[in-house]
Specification:
Layout lengths: L1 H6 L2 H33 L13 H34 L2 H15 L7 H34 L7 H32 L4 H24 L6 E3 L4 H12 L4 E7 L10 E4 L5 E6 L23 H9 L10 H16 L2 H23 L3 H6 L8 H12 L1 H32 L1
Helix pairs in contact: 2-3, 3-5, 4-5, 5-6, 6-7, 7-11, 8-10, 10-14
Length: 421
């Protein structure tokens, strides 16, 4: 069998190597997930180490939630891997490229308008991905998240949100891609440097404008009211010289009961965002996005109230919020944000450099069904997604291990931050 594979043309060897590596990675990850699911099923009592900080009811809810998420991940992962395999085996990529070419021809653009055809191809590809992923997203939101009490969305809100995300993504993706392709085409021998600098500039711009202009399209941001919590946050920020300018609360409760906190901004303009679900005694929004009106109590409502026990108190108290936030600020204090960005850009530069070496290899295009043309966008897809897959998987193994060590440092530093505040 091995001799037969090596007797194949190099294009076929590349194709089957990519396919084989993809399934090898999937099966390995599926095996690891299977082992984890066994732990979820067998560990039915609170571990001794957590006995003092977690009650049995909370542990059981968390265990069942993680078990359902793991089962969902298995089936969605199997579907995704099967779908990707069929697309490659049936020549889905060159087929979609041909459809994009036919559409651009109907619009009056010839084959010389490669960037235009690339944008049509990209739109069709992202639309296909959105449509095929929609049933899985619906199941995750309205079955798993709903079952465990996290979902706050209606079906209408979900669809409007999905459409809005799709169109906003297109408004960003298409112009950026067209400029990147143009830079690669006119950049000459050093195009990879210009392409890398362009992607660096785009990432910095997106980080700068996301919270102020993009995120508000989906969620409502309000300033945290004056009070003890705001004073405590400002004191903690001041104690570590964190240049805090504003503290926002984002209305995440209309979408999910999950909570989070983060900061953003460059230089002396840092801002902190707290999810409203993180705050103690927050008021969840109903399915229309409005606060639930108080109902006059009657005999019927009284009996219903007795039949339906009240939910446990939501959110965290002020010291707990400071602990969560202290962890995030610890990353800033230890320079992890800057270090991660530097590492990411070094990796990006390396990938563009290797792309410059490989883009001229015709056999890479022939391997995936492009016998007569070598479109730049297709080259980016083939090289970054398929040819670099062993490198990407190696990176996925190393980076989480390094991040695990990194993420422990702010947790160790956090008590010092809390004491200083």
């Amino acid at each position: 069998m091995v001799e037969t594979i090596f007797d194949l043309p190099v294009e076929k060897q590349i194709f089957y190597a990519v396919l084989g590596f993809s399934w090898t990675v999937y099966l390995w990850e599926a095996y690891l997930s299977y082992r984890q699911r066994r732990i979820y099923r067998s560990t039915t009592h609170v571990p001794q180490e957590l006995g003092k900080i977690m009650d049995s009811a909370t542990f059981e809810k968390s265990r069942l939630y993680q078990l359902d998420k793991s089962n969902f991940s298995f089936w969605s992962g199997l579907y995704s891997e099967t779908e990707g395999t069929l697309i490659l085996l049936l020549g889905g990529i060159p087929l979609l490229w041909g459809v994009a070419g036919s559409l651009t021809n109907r619009l009056g653009f010839g084959s010389e308008y490669e960037i235009t055809q690339s944008l049509v191809f990209l739109t069709l590809a992202t639309l296909f991905s959105a449509v095929t992923g929609l049933p899985w997203s619906l199941y995750n939101t309205f079955v798993i998240e709903e079952k465990h009490g996290f979902n706050q969305q209606t079906f209408g809100f979900f669809l409007r949100d999905a459409l809005k995300k799709f169109f906003v993504t297109q408004c960003i993706l298409l112009p950026v891609t067209s400029l990147l392709l143009y830079i690669i085409k006119i950049g000459g021998d050093y195009f990879f440097i210009y392409a890398w600098l362009f992607t660096l500039a785009v990432s910095l711009v997106l980080v700068t404008i996301y919270a102020d202009y993009i995120a508000p399209l989906f969620d409502k941001f309000t300033l945290l009211p004056e009070g003890e919590l705001k004073m405590d946050i400002e004191a903690m920020a001041k104690s570590i010289s964190f240049p805090l300018t504003k503290v926002y609360v984002v209305e995440g409760s209309k979408r999910s009961s999950h909570s989070n906190a983060y900061f953003y901004g460059f230089f002396k303009n840092k801002r902190i965002v707290l999810f409203d679900t993180l705050l103690e005694d927050y008021s969840p929004f109903n399915k229309t996005g409005e606060p639930q009106p108080e109902q006059p109590e009657s005999d019927e409502t009284s009996s219903e109230a007795k039949a339906k026990p009240k939910n446990k108190k939501q959110g965290c108290n002020n010291p707990e919020i400071l602990a969560v936030l202290g962890h995030e600020l610890g990353h800033w204090k230890l320079g992890h944000t800057v270090k991660n960005m530097i590492i990411s850009q070094m990796n990006s530069f390396l990938c563009f450099s290797l792309f410059a070496v490989l883009i001229g290899r015709k056999e890479l295009f022939v391997a995936f069904g492009f016998n007569d043309s070598q479109p730049t966008l297709i080259g980016l897809m083939i090289i970054f997604q398929f040819i670099f897959s062993p490198y990407n998987e190696r990176k996925r193994m190393v980076v989480p291990a390094a991040l695990k060590i990194v993420r422990l440092k702010p947790t160790r530093k956090q008590p010092n931050v809390a004491r200083e505040s």
